[in-house]
Specification:
CATH class of the largest domain: Mainly Alpha
CATH superfamily of the largest domain: Ribosome-recycling factor
Structural class: alpha+beta
Order of helices and strands: HHEEHEEHEEHH
Largest sheet: 4 strands, antiparallel
Low-confidence stretches: none
Strand order of the largest sheet: 3-4-6-5
Radius of gyration: 23 Å
Number of domains: 2
Oligomer: single chain
Number of strands: 6
Shape: elongated
Mean pLDDT: 89
């Protein structure tokens, strides 16, 4: 049992951790009251025919709380960077001076803040659904292991395994709730 059960639990832990990491990465791209490089790092720029993340072809800095400065390593790519920013869902018009691009973020209105906070809640809910899908898969594996003739789990071992899976789910759901609450507080402040 120990081997089969621990393999199932380890697989679940890895998959739940990945779901949490994806959510946290998505949260980084949501705008709060101040500018951060994470807002633009993932923007893909058509660089010599291949979509390249912005942070690989330009230096991104935040000289002031509401502004980002993007300095391309190759000055010839500045036009493509500008196009990519305009296509992105940032909703900001870049200011291009030929050498670098400035992005000035206006303060968020109360309505925008509430929309972003609601979006964070939706994203957290979607992450919880993916955790529950992982739980469902793990429970199926536990059921299969219980019925397996070669390496069977006893009924008690299978029940204990399902309890451990449920406990792990609750732990990760709590982590998601804490991350969402923290992000909502950042947005609403």
């Amino acid at each position: 049992m120990a081997d089969v059960g621990s393999r199932i639990l380890e697989d679940g832990r890895r998959r739940m951790e990945k779901a949490l990491e994806v959510l946290l990465e998505d949260f980084r791209a949501i705008r709060t009251g101040r500018a951060t490089p994470a807002l633009v790092e993932g923007i893909r720029v058509d660089y010599y025919g291949s979509p390249t993340p912005l942070n690989q072809i330009a230096q991104i800095s935040v000289p002031e709380p509401r502004g980002i400065v993007i300095k391309p390593f190759d000055p010839g790519s500045i036009g493509e960077i500008e196009k990519a920013i305009l296509k992105s869902d940032l909703g900001i018009t870049p200011q291009n001076d030929g050498k670098l691009i400035r992005l000035n973020f206006p303060p968020l209105s109360e309505e925008q803040r509430k929309k972003l906070a609601a979006r964070v809640k939706e994203m957290a809910e979607a992450a919880k659904v993916s955790l529950r899908n992982v739980r469902r898969d793990l429970n199926k594996s536990a059921d299969a292991a219980e019925k397996d003739k070669e390496v069977p789990l006893t009924e008690d071992q299978a029940r204990k395994l399902r309890d451990d899976i449920q406990e792990m789910l609750k732990k990760y759901e709590k982590k998601i709730e804490e991350a969402a609450k923290k992000k909502q507080t950042e947005i609403l402040e």
